[in-house]
């Protein structure tokens, strides 16, 4: 059992759980470097090197970036962050990515000390998702009712107008829940079973501030 505040954390939660908003708050309050595969892949494209061009070609063709290429991007970028607290939001997403996380830990030189699930029911998640807004510049996530920006319609960090998420359209919400249950649900259960002393589930159906406090307590940060 880890007795000191964890340095490296993986956060899980179905779409609509509030996971990303909670992760952002935790990162800002306690100095975690956020690790989001999608953001790192977009950064790789902007860098324009050989690795980024491979990613760009796949994304332009509407194809998924394969796990081995995503691993290369993660390994490169995490090497620069290895002295920081790391907070993984959305990785590993599938059982196929679980061994990649183990490879990253060994190659970069860190160890995940907590796996956290923000647990909400599918019905609660669906009810929440219509109010989500995101900053297109920095990817900060808000909710119009539960965690609104300080100024209506703009990001607290950079003042960029917030937008709705295309994948929060009603016709795709149910599909996204099913995809989570099929692909990421087994990952959560894997860590619950294989690392019970490092796994914690937080009741995500409470008000946002209570969930945030429970998360900090579970990580030994309050």
UniProtKB/TrEMBL annotation:
GO terms for molecular function: AMP kinase activity; ATP binding; zinc ion binding. Pathway: Purine metabolism; AMP biosynthesis via salvage pathway; AMP from ADP: step 1/1. Zn(2+) binds at residues 135, 138, 155, 158. Its main location: cytoplasm. Keywords: ATP-binding, Cytoplasm, Kinase, Metal-binding, Nucleotide biosynthesis, Nucleotide-binding, Transferase, Zinc. It catalyses: AMP + ATP = 2 ADP. Residues 132-167 form the Adenylate kinase active site lid domain. Consists of three domains, a large central CORE domain and two small peripheral domains, NMPbind and LID, which undergo movements during catalysis. The LID domain closes over the site of phosphoryl transfer upon ATP binding. Assembling and dissambling the active center during each catalytic cycle provides an effective means to prevent ATP hydrolysis. Some bacteria have evolved a zinc-coordinating structure that stabilizes the LID domain. HAMAP family: Adenylate_kinase_Adk. This is Adenylate kinase. It comes from Tautonia plasticadhaerens.
């Amino acid at each position: 059992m880890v007795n000191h505040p964890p340095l490296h954390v993986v956060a899980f939660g179905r779409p609509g759980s509030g996971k990303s908003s909670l992760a952002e708050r935790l990162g800002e309050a306690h100095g975690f470097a956020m690790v989001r595969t999608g953001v790192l892949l977009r950064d790789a494209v902007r860098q324009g090197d050989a690795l980024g061009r491979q990613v760009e070609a796949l994304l332009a063709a509407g194809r998924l970036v394969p796990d081995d290429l995503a691993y290369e991007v993660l390994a490169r970028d995490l090497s620069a962050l290895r002295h920081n607290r790391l907070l993984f939001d959305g990785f590993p997403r599938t059982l196929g990515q679980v061994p990649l996380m183990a490879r990253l830990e060994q190659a970069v030189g860190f160890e995940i000390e907590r796996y956290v699930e923000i647990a909400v029911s599918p019905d609660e998640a669906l009810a929440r998702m219509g109010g989500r807004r995101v900053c297109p510049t920095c990817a900060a996530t808000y909710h119009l009712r539960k965690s609104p920006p300080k100024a209506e319609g703009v990001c607290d960090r950079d003042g960029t107008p917030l937008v709705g998420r295309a994948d929060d359209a009603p016709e795709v919400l149910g599909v996204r829940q099913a995809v989570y249950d099929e692909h990421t649900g087994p990952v959560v259960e894997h860590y619950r079973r294989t690392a019970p002393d490092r796994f914690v589930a937080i009741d995500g159906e409470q008000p946002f501030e209570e969930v945030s406090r429970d998360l900090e307590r579970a990580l030994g940060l309050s």
